[in-house]
Amino acid sequence: MTSLRPYVGLALAAWRSVQAYRATFVLGLLMLVFNLLAMLALWQVLLRSRGSLAGFDWPHMKAYLLVVFVANCLVSTYSDYTMAMRIQSGLVALDLTKPLDYQAARFAETLGRVALELLTAGAVTVAAVLAFGGLPLPGPGQLALFVVSLAAVVPLKFLIVYLTGMVCFWTQDYLGVNWARVAVSALLSGTLIPLAFLPGWLRDVAFALPFQGTASAPALLFIGQATGARAVGLVAGQLAWTVALCAGTRWAWRFALRQLTVHGG
Amino acid sequence: MDGPVAAEALIAARALTKIFRRPVKDPGTIGALRHLVTRRYTEHVAVDHIDLTVHAGEAVAYVGRNGAGKSTTVKLLTGVLVPTSGEVRVNGLVPHEHRIANARRIGVVFGQRSQLWWDLPVRESFGLLRDMYRVPAVRYRQTLDELSDVLGLAELMPVVARKLSLGQRMRADLAAALLHRPPIVYLDEPTIGLDIEVKDAVRAFLRRIVADGTTVLLTTHDLADIEDVCRRLVIIDQGRIIHDGDLASVRDSFARERSIHFQLAAPVDLAAVAPRVPGGQVLAGRTGTEFSVRFDRFAHTAGEVAAAVMSTVDVVDFRLDEPGIEDVVRKVYAGELSPAAHPA
């Protein structure tokens, strides 16, 4: 019944659109690259003198930081910025006259951008490995689970971003909401610091929330800190949050539409 | 309310109302903080208990001042906005509840916003729309050929949308809205900002789709758009429909005045001319050798008036002004035309 073709078309259009604004896109990712470099330099110094901290030695910390960097590149700020702007500018009215599921259409566009984000992140990772030395690779089973987990970052993060973008229907303003999300997410996703370094109660909170599934989960799988049942549990958690947020955003969407205000033209 | 008329109607709105709630925020940070604690809102009734019935094949002009509620009505009919109260059905469907099914059967042009993908060549935007509306390849090519003829699309096809001029963009946008041959087309200010030449092309195109049986709801500021395209005139003011009726009969009733402008060989005394002109009002022109006669076109013919003037003075040239729909709408705003006097 539902054809995928228009969604594939949207993904391709988004991919081409990002290419038209390559400079903006790359500059946006540059912030993440600087962050990565700073973290690598900081932890290198710390771990050289201490050997290991909270179960992280230098090679594993390096791998952790790189995976977190790649995960953070996916569905990066560009996505929610574009969505929020369409709501604020009223262009959302045009999106809504199309015979497409709004959420699925935005996800398709996100996938188009993810392709480019992966390419860029991959290039930076290669450069970082060359500069900072090789990484310990996990076994094939663990690696497969890691790939699934990294892929699961995309829909999960999309839904978190989508939910924040939807807040625009109420607030008519996006910057504040976005900053709040970025701040909370940086801490609870394990981007700022691995979750193992957080105080016990906060760590428990973080593991119960969806944010860790957007960075920490694939990184812990890659460096082998989570294996066996715990590893499967992390991936299952990502998928469960994806399902829950998908249902939640669809439920909230009906209320969001009632809030929509589009003035003029 | 589901009488036989309502059942046949393609678009049927009953007491359709949309109220926007706007937060009241005092300026500055303190104002924003205060808003978090004590939320205050003002309510703005954009569309106020509108009853509107449109039958298949009708071309309806939906006219009103800025902020009268035109665009909001269109957004309610297209399912973009959810009504605060009242009912709306388009082709039997409630648009905001069956947004996607409704979207398949409608074409929409918002003159102030483009539905083209900004960074893609027009051709690829069209291809994307073809996939969205599942237009079969043969029919797509056929429709595109037809549209190309009227709108001159060939030169636009390879151009990236953001590089189009406003007129080019509007031509491409019109085509984009019609590629799937929708039975209902909503046009929200389709000629805004266009120069005369493009406006004429757009109007010619609209006349053609109306002739083909497409149901058109045309929202506009430009009254010339209406006279060219529509037979029915609906006027909205402050969210309420204040007039709904046949365009020609409204014009006959409320735009009766014609004017003839005369240019003379030598200045004359208008006071001497006036008594000789039948039933007319004689007005002085910019110079002594010009004057105009305003008369009721049902009381006198232009021929009578012109003959009377020419038998009195030496006329070099003259020009006839037909009454416009502008006059009608102006009278409606001035309160001279009441909806009760001319029910739909």
What can you tell me about this protein's structure?
The complex is a heterodimer of chains A (about 260) and B (about 350). By secondary structure, chain A is mostly helical. Chain A has one domain. Chain A has helices spanning about 5-20, 20-50, 60-75, 75-90, 90-95, 100-130, 140-170, 175-190, 200-210, 215-220, 230-260, and strands spanning about 50-55, 55. The longest helix of chain A is centred in the middle third of the chain and has 32 residues, at about 140-170. The two termini of chain A are about 35 Å apart. The model of chain A has no long low-confidence stretch (mean pLDDT about 90). Chain B has about 350 residues and is an alpha/beta fold. Chain B has 2 domains: about 55-250, Rossmann fold (3-Layer(aba) Sandwich), CATH 3.40.50.300; about 255-320, Alpha-Beta Plaits (2-Layer Sandwich), CATH 3.30.70. In chain B, strands 5-6-7-3-8-9 form a 6-stranded mixed beta sheet, sandwiched between helices. In chain B, strands 11-12-10-13 form a 4-stranded antiparallel beta sheet, with helices on one face. A 3-stranded antiparallel beta sheet of chain B has the order 2-1-4. In chain B, a hairpin with a 5-residue loop joins strand 11 and strand 12 (about 290-295). In chain B, helix 6 (about 135-150) runs antiparallel to helix 7 and helix 10 packs across helix 13. Classes of the chains: A mainly alpha (about 260), B alpha/beta (about 350). The interface between A and B is medium-sized, with 28 and 38 residues.
